[in-house]
Amino acid sequence: MNSIYKGHPIIDTHAHLCDEQFNLDFTDVINRAEDVNIKTIIIPSTDYLSAIKSLELAEKYKILKVAIGIHPHEAKQFSEQEFEKIENLIPNKNIVAIGEIGLEYYYDFAPKDLQKNVFLEHLKLAKKYNLPTIIHTRDSIDDAIKIIEEFSLNADDKNLKGVFHCFGGNFEQATKLEKLGYMISYPGIVTFKNSPVLETVKQMDCKFMLETDSPYLAPIPLRGKRNEPANIIHTLKKIAEVCNKTENQIADETTLNASKLFNLKLN
Ligand SMILES: [Zn+2]
């Protein structure tokens, strides 16, 4: 194990490890993650079938936890039957969140109104089982915040929680989310040249979590390649630099944030 991370476990809060790009070397990918002291990897599902596959993987590899839901890219797949099948999975002990859900406005895979409805149904599901949500936004942060605000007002439980993953918003939006009980997380984009998120990273002073969004968004110096959880160390290093803290501090603070949100045991 890389000795500088010994005693300072890291959590990759977002890695699509059921992507077929991992079929050939899955165990190696897990071993490399463990080598850099990653303690937990959360796999967000995109639909029912990927939820099943993710849960099978989590049965085999103790490092894995799973989020279940219908990704906004797949919002057209939403039906009562599909949703019921997803809900029926919830008793599984490896499920830690509802996700990946949200709003995708950059690509036109599904009409906005449909996406908003599907998003709201998942928020209700998360509330019913007291689970956090993993939220995807693209060109849609303000709309997603609005839906959560309205839902929080209507829902009697004010402790709804979740994460806006791969957060591309500004400090004001991040602060608004914090007040609503939501976290944000950062992937390898923080390492990209002139990354627009660095200012917010600095201002948020570790009130966020780490993720890789594997197999996408590989950090520099691996940009363009297949991404995997072990590459989180490049993101960690860059954030330490930007926040003027040690890598161990960043690991500790982000891991604590993730363990609280997803109710993960650290030992
Ligand atoms: Zn994702």
Give the topology:
Elements lengths: L9 E3 L13 H10 L2 E7 L3 H13 L3 E5 L11 H10 L5 E10 L7 H17 L4 E6 L2 H14 L7 E3 L6 H9 L2 E5 L11 H7 L4 E2 L21 H12 L3 H15 L6
Parallel strand pairs: 1-2, 2-3, 3-4, 4-5, 5-6, 6-7, 7-8
The structure holds zinc ion.
Short description:
This protein has 267 residues and is an alpha/beta fold.
Report on this model:
The protein has helices at residues 26-35, 48-60, 80-89, 112-128, 141-154, 171-179, 198-204, 232-243, 247-261, and strands at 10-12, 38-44, 64-68, 95-104, 133-138, 162-164, 182-186, 209-210. The chain has 267 residues and is an alpha/beta fold. Strand 6 (162-164), helix 6 (171-179) and strand 7 (182-186) form a beta-alpha-beta unit. Helix 4 crosses helix 5 and helix 8 (232-243) crosses helix 9 (247-261). The radius of gyration is 17 Å and the shape is globular. The protein starts with 9 loop residues before the first strand and ends in a 6-residue tail after the last helix. Zinc ion binds at residues 14, 16, 44, 100, 136, 213.
Give the helix/strand class. alpha/beta
**Beta-strand content:** 15-25%
In total, the number of strands is: 8
What is the CATH T-level topology? Answer: TIM Barrel
Calculate the terminal CA-CA distance, rounded to whole Å: 17 Å
Number of DSSP helical runs: 9
Fraction in helix: 40-55%
Global Rg: 17 Å
Order of helices and strands: EHEHEHEHEHEHEHEHH
**Average of the residue pLDDT scores:** 94
Largest sheet: 8 strands, parallel
User: How do the strands line up in the largest sheet?
Assistant: 1-2-3-4-5-6-7-8
Bound heterogens, unique:
zinc ion
Note the overall shape: globular
Q: Going by CATH, what is the homologous superfamily?
A: Metal-dependent hydrolases
Tell me the name of the CATH class: Alpha Beta
Which spans have pLDDT < 50 for at least 5 consecutive residues?
Answer: none
**Domains (count):** 1
